[in-house]
Amino acid sequence: MNYKTIDTILERTLLGDDISPQEGVVLLKQTDIGAIAAIRATADKLRHQQAGDTVTYVINRNINFTNICEQHCSFCAFRRDDGDDDAYWLDWTAILEKSHDAVQRGATEICMQGGLHPQAQINGKSLPYYLKLVETIKQEYPQIHLHAFSPQEVQFIARVDGLEYIDVISALQNAGVDSMPGTAAEVLDDEVRRILCPEKINTATWLEIIGIAHKLGLHTTSTILSGHIETPEQQIGHLEKLRSLQQTAVNHQYPARITEFIVLPFVGQEAPKSLRRRVGRDQPVLADTLLLGAVARIYLGNWIPNHQPSWVKLGLAGATQALTWGCNDIGGTLMEEHITTMAGAVGGTCMEVETLQSAIASSGRPYQQRDTLYHPVDSAKKLANA
Q: Whole-model pTM above 0.90?
């Protein structure tokens, strides 16, 4: 495809048009330096139009409450079997200690996810255990925003207890879950999922659970796990499903929707050998991640204005670069992070606020603390209330 055609696609997006899946694939397949530079510049302009110049960040803490998991995803180096030497399952005291530490360090959000642990039950039921996880934190720290439990965890609870998804999500929401991570999406293509995560929920179930969350007023995020076995066509198919899901939420005036999109590049260093051999490298290819991020801004930006890189997976320098490829947010402090770190990522597990601010400032843009739902946080007011 010649420059003229690419320029035509890019010019239309700057006028506010959505591009088609076919056009998205054309952009993703570009290898010419000039074409890629034009895609980057367009993504950067759209970011300016759709999200402004201020780069946001959130002060948050991850709590991965167990790494014991009944599933065996081919990319996962985090999961363990019960009884393994390095298997763990946090007790209520440890959950509270981590929550206390988060609040002391100024966190406005706790992000909580874990393995699918068959013994994580109270009186033989799964849902009461998850409700207690929520209530343990919320009774002590009602002000903290709890961003918790992926669609996979919702499906796991529903399956174990014989419940409908809507009942599980409602119960979690009533207990104090404030928003849902759009993880476990990996690539929303069942051919890819059959190889990558055959035991995980299928594409339709992921979309259904996120859609129910939006109807109930629970905001979600969205992600893609990229750079393993998927094709550009499958990547764009994933973006198309997310765009369509968001359009449904907007057009039906659901009380909640997708708040952000994050590219999560595959880290293979400690991943199970079969997938690692197939992918053939241990760390993400930054150029591929940046191009996908730019095309995602072009494809989704009219509907999902907030785009974020993963400093855990790319390192802070790579994530800072992504700010010129369509991203307007640099993510959170995390304080600890096990899932990506155990896969062999180089980014680290904790970022001081000042380090994030310096990285943003180095890109020549202003920074602003935000909450999970992208409202600005006034630090002075926060200190006064601490």
A: yes
